[in-house]
Amino acid sequence: MSDRLATDEALLSVEIAGIKFKNPVLTASGTFGYGLEFANLIDLNRLGGFCSKGLSPRPMKGNPPPRIVETYGAMINAIGLQNIGARAFVLEKLPKLKDYNTRVIANVFGYSIQDYVEAIEILNDGEGIDAYELNISCPNVKEGGIVIGSSPKSSAEVTEVVKTAAKRPVIVKLSPNVTDIKELARAVESAGADAISMINTLVAMSIDVYTRRPRIANVTGGLSGPAIKPIAVRMVYEAKQVVSIPIIGIGGIANWMDAAEFLIAGASAVQIGTANYYDPHCCIKVIDGLATYCREQKVGSIVDLVNSLQSV
Ligand SMILES: Cc1cc2nc3c(=O)[nH]c(=O)nc-3n(C[C@H](O)[C@H](O)[C@H](O)COP(=O)(O)O)c2cc1C
Q: What is the pTM of this model?
């Protein structure tokens, strides 16, 4: 490793749920495949970590196309959690991921609490997973996901049951499609979550005015990308006021300044999603940009930036 990378690591490393990350920049679930797809495009060893596509106990085909549409500064997707299944992830992907020195977070999805537990039990056998991220916030399926994540009671219930089954730390991914994010954050913290990640996509819709048809076969989908960032920053800030577990900020991050905003608002790390589609090097640029910013601002450790918002 070059001297510069080693000094950057000393500056940027963070600890969340007992896991040390070499920097606070991770890729967001569903936008980075199973990690390996990007191995020829960027050096995966540079990433703080990566989150797998949502894994269910059995493979899922997802929704029929069209499943993605661009909107101003954003995109809407309704993939419907297409994935290879937890077992195939353990058998086919994890052995190859072991070649890389980065943290691996397995994102988990289920239609019912039992599904989450089943997926976790399969993943517990896998070597090389550092933590689980529970997607209780997917807006693109009719059961599970957002249905569970919209209520503090059911969010707490799934967190508690999964915590008992999980051999690894559990990060619970919150939905922004709620009236009061603080209630949800409090509920999952009380139920034993080791950390929170937020936000998932916002329920959205786009219409072709000539055909008068929805642009997405599922009619509605989840909005992601730069347009959602101010909403996500506000929600991280609000959640940070009421919980003491670490928060991983997600939503519209496209450059190091966006990432720094989330950290100042209270996030201990960030995930980058949609930006990977149009700039696969985005995460690396954000890591380098944060290191330069810390040096210029004389911030001795990125941890000192977390929750450092000054009054107006
Ligand atoms: C195509 C696509 C697929 C996604 N799939 C998942 C998923 O499987 N599980 C999950 O928790 N989040 C999923 N997400 C949500 C992202 O991880 C992230 O929370 C959201 O896109 C906001 O971040 P961004 O604006 O940086 O993309 C997906 C997002 C996109 C765009």
A: 0.97
